[in-house]
Here is the input.
Amino acid sequence: MTRLVQYEDAPPEARAVFDAIKAARGVPDVNNFWKALAVHPPTLARTWDSLSQVMAPGALNPLVKEMLYLAASMAAGCAYCIASHGAAARAKGMTDAQYGELLAVVAMAAETNRLAEALRVPVDPRFD
Amino acid sequence: MTRLVQYEDAPPEARAVFDAIKAARGVPDVNNFWKALAVHPPTLARTWDSLSQVMAPGALNPLVKEMLYLAASMAAGCAYCIASHGAAARAKGMTDAQYGELLAVVAMAAETNRLAEALRVPVDPRFD
Amino acid sequence: MTRLVQYEDAPPEARAVFDAIKAARGVPDVNNFWKALAVHPPTLARTWDSLSQVMAPGALNPLVKEMLYLAASMAAGCAYCIASHGAAARAKGMTDAQYGELLAVVAMAAETNRLAEALRVPVDPRFD
Amino acid sequence: MTRLVQYEDAPPEARAVFDAIKAARGVPDVNNFWKALAVHPPTLARTWDSLSQVMAPGALNPLVKEMLYLAASMAAGCAYCIASHGAAARAKGMTDAQYGELLAVVAMAAETNRLAEALRVPVDPRFD
Amino acid sequence: MTRLVQYEDAPPEARAVFDAIKAARGVPDVNNFWKALAVHPPTLARTWDSLSQVMAPGALNPLVKEMLYLAASMAAGCAYCIASHGAAARAKGMTDAQYGELLAVVAMAAETNRLAEALRVPVDPRFD
Amino acid sequence: MTRLVQYEDAPPEARAVFDAIKAARGVPDVNNFWKALAVHPPTLARTWDSLSQVMAPGALNPLVKEMLYLAASMAAGCAYCIASHGAAARAKGMTDAQYGELLAVVAMAAETNRLAEALRVPVDPRFD
Here is the structure.
């Protein structure tokens, strides 16, 4: 698998991002995703910065944002992201019943997405 | 583009589904998606039946379900589905601000999904 | 849209491939796909050569091969390929009922593919 | 990996589906896919119900349906589904030569799908 | 299609980004992509900011970066992005011959990507 | 995982391709990809033949071609291909800094590809 950069081996710019993540989340260590990204410190810094902005509370509450992130990750088939955002959604209060319904919506979307494309359905004028 | 089966040309099994959709949604005609699906009445019937079950109110409210559907459709890049579920989410109350944040989450997920896969990041044991 | 190279404007290497396609298929002109590929004659020649080998009759009959091609193109969401291989499958005898069932299988696969990935299901040992 | 619900721990609605699968297939236990889906019994029941309808013999024979399912799963890159439907196709009689040709068609489709999209080829009027 | 926000209708935060893009590129107006993104000014600002950082000259020259962007967009099948980054690569000096070879590499990658996944090939230990 | 055909068990047509790969690359054994492909010798031969043509030096130098292959494989999320073409790019001289920038471009493309599709942005007339 990929090279994971540990805190003690990280260059200063990466260490600063690790510190920011640990402080924001109140955790003793960062996830593997961040350790892997540290192979390119500018991408590590930019990704954390963007993610913090995007996931901040706003017009959508944090649990809904996390479930949207999980749904998009399931639709894209990213195993790591499904695992990490699934855990994050649980931590923010997603119940088993909510998870089951999210799963059903994502699966249904996959089926109708495919049907709409396979049939090359023209967009209804009233949608625009 | 695809062949769209109009109500007057639809076989009885398809017409029954069209009637059910119109009644459930209180609309005078069905969307192009359903007219296109009518080329195979068993798939039309099964899809409507499944969709009704999946989108019924439950542990998640209808707007959240619709936004999850939209996010999954955006992640899959289905233009028709983005248009139809975007319109449906608006009809269920999605505001401009909520739409903007949903878009940002989906875009961010696309970026981190790709990074996690490109780096082949191993799943953290604590996620499972 | 893309630049389409017409026969009269094509360089000799491209013209030779156009001639081979017209002869093999008994048609007066080639499809847009080949005219578009002619912007890079080596890719045009290689693609036609590979396609001819892959689609030749073998352990699978030509209609089954064409339906597999159509199913894969639907799963990948390629609108042009769905249109062209849909037309080719019709020309090789695909009936409305067979098309409807193919569509249903592709849609069902999209749904269960997504579910298997979303749930990160481990492969059963007996499959290998 | 994912949580797999065993028969003895399954709630009654899930157990009923497990029983139906075992009876239909004449097997002593269900695959991991169904055990994973049992985290949401309504999705488990709906998926089995839909799959049974879609895969029933019809205008296409069961082996062709299974090969279409396999081709679509390969095009979508779902490892679990490739393993399970590959095993199912073998069980229904797919030979090594047929498998090799299916693989070649799926790979060729991936290449030409990408080329058609990269070149943004306009659909030929005669396809519609 | 989507709503495009013109300069005169844009809110101040969006207008500032439009001005920055026009200044950086020396163009009288921004592309549709930016006008569409202006429906959510924070995403517009964040995207322009990230793009500027990522595409700045560095260890890779601007033409190579633009060709990598084009290749990734082709692999993802994004028609708009193929058109816009294709035009950008041409503007940075991509020749017809380079474009043809890029197309061939992307198509070949699509085929071998699919084969590697369809065959579920285990990663060779020496790659890591 | 998949069945890997070793040299000593390979049929003559597959062995000839293995010999050609070993000679061209100066390696004592072929990668797992080729051993897996040997289950269908015609696909093995055709794939090696195509790959040799596509990756030969031309208007783009071998390192740029390899990086384009890697970028396309990352965009498609093929873990095996990311590992093998990542190793090949390193062998052809890709530095850590170049790898980091390639990763950033691919991630950025994923985000803007998704945004362009989610917003259904119309192609600017001047791109064509």
Q: What stands out?
A: The mean pLDDT of chain D is 97. Chain D is about 65% helix and 0% strand. The two ends of chain D are 45 Å apart (CA to CA). Chain D touches chain A at residues 39-40, 42-43, 46-47, 76-78 (CB under 8 Å).
